[in-house]
Design goal:
By secondary structure, this protein is mostly beta strands. 6% of the residues lie in helices and 38% in strands. It is built from two helices and 33 strands.
Length: 442
């Protein structure tokens, strides 16, 4: 009888472990396993704080806005290190928060008189290598044990970034290729960029094992001055059997062949006649239910574009255009989760739930935040997680009816510029508040 009870207990425990592991997912890039801000993670807490449901707290070498990525028992991210005058790549133990290794790979910490620093781009991994990029142009690959495999500097190889602001985009790993986009001004900005010729905006494809160039596609645009600048990240997408990289910036949304960089289609523009010269673009595109969302800059209108087109698209490709002023995003990339788009208007502190094909706004609700919200929303376990500049966290029920589940504050007294999305992976939430990283779980 005792032996039978022990056997039942063992089998029950084993089944529980299998169920938990089946739910656990990695978060290999800044927008998660589906490239849209969502995951199938379950069992995440509804409420938490620096004491409630806290698994661990880790101190980082410095500030940064890079999103933690999670693979197995490792958490990977970057931060500045003032003492080393550079950006460091970090691996933390997912179970304890202990720093496993720290590697200096980027030179410099910020541009003069800039609020942002060079630790804004997020890493990406395939479970064998982790790729880190810095706003200084340094790009490096490490194995999971922290050994540097290769390194190069994009500015040294292709020219200084021609941006008025601190450049940031995250590398993308897909199709056994490492991608990076540089959408910049065609003329120099102060001492940045070529002065004797035009600067080119481009998409770069590299071999993950060596960092060597596979191809570089030049992406033209009639946009002017700052409107050429984009701080977005390419999004891998597949629709009706066609694979493509979605790229937004320079007044246009484009789809590209991932094997060659060739432009498959182009839609624009939110800037008719390219008359507005100061519309830099931040939000990345997001795909869901046959629609690609393109957010206009500085809370201009948002557009739902029908996927699957070819060539230069006409207005027939527009499924819908937002009409309400609140349905817009200047910085956060929208979320697609459980059949709905969630667009965060960080300036007006309003979260919108949108029906993909029609653009119908199912609800539009203001969050009780004291400051702007610039981190992109995350969808997991039937909930949406959002964080403000101060570290105010809002947990909202996903679905066609608005329900605020909980509020908390994960920031420090000096927190003023938190922009990192909350990550849901391996049964936990990972919340970055500048130089602190919190792991939350039941």
């Amino acid at each position: 009888m005792i032996r039978a009870l022990k056997t039942i207990s063992f089998v029950t425990t084993l089944m529980l472990v299998v169920v938990i592991n089946a739910r656990a997912e990695n978060w290999p890039n800044w927008r998660g396993p589906a490239n849209n801000g969502s995951t199938d993670e379950k069992g995440l807490p509804d409420s938490f704080s620096k004491t409630e449901n806290l698994r661990w707290e880790a101190s980082l070498p410095g500030d940064g806005a890079s999103t933690p990525i999670v693979w197995g028992d490792g958490v990977y991210l970057t931060s500045i290190d003032e003492s080393a005058d550079g950006v460091v790549a970090l691996k933390l133990d997912r179970n304890t928060g202990k720093i496993v290794w720290k590697k200096l790979f980027g030179k410099g910490v910020r541009q003069e008189r800039s609020r942002s620093n060079y630790a804004s781009p997020s890493a990406v991994t395939n479970g064998k290598r982790v790729f880190f990029f810095s706003g200084s142009g340094d790009l490096a690959a490490f194995d999971l044990d922290g050994k540097q495999v290769w390194a190069r500097n994009i500015q040294k190889d292709y020219g200084t970034f021609a941006f008025g602001w601190t450049f940031s985009t995250s590398p993308v790993l897909w199709n056994d290729t490492l991608y990076l986009q540089v959408l910049q001004r065609d003329v120099a900005v102060d001492d940045k960029g070529f002065k004797d010729r035009k600067n080119e905006s481009y998409i770069l494809a590299m071999e993950p094992e060596t960092g060597k160039e596979k191809w570089r596609h030049i992406r033209p645009t009639p946009a002017q001055m700052e409107s050429r600048e984009a701080f977005s990240t390419p999004v891998p997408n597949e629709y009706k059997g066609r694979k493509e990289l979605l790229v937004i910036g320079g007044d246009y949304l484009t789809g590209h062949d991932p094997d060659t960089g060739k432009e498959l289609w182009r839609w624009g523009t939110w800037n008719p006649g390219s008359k507005e010269p100061f519309w830099r673009l931040v939000p990345s595109p997001v795909f869901g239910d046959g629609i690609v969302i393109a957010c206009g800059p500085k809370t201009a209108q948002a557009y739902g574009i029908k996927a699957g087109g070819s060539g230069t698209l006409s207005d027939d490709a527009i499924a819908w255009v937002s009409k309400e002023k609140e349905v817009a995003s200047d910085v956060p990339t929208p979320l697609f989760y459980e059949g709905r788009f969630y667009m965060l208007n960080g300036r007006k502190k309003v979260l919108n739930c949108i029906e993909p094909k029609s653009g119908k706004v199912l609800w539009s609700e203001r969050l009780n935040a004291k400051v702007k919200l610039e981190a992109s929303p995350t969808g997991a376990d039937g909930k949406i997680y959002i964080i403000s500049h101060l570290g105010e966290v809002f947990v909202v029920r996903a679905g066609d009816k608005f329900e605020l589940i909980s509020e908390s504050n994960m920031g420090e007294a000096q927190s003023t510029f938190i922009r990192t999305p909350i990550v849901a992976a391996q049964g936990s939430l990972f919340i970055r508040a500048n130089d602190k990283l919190y792991c939350i779980g039941k």
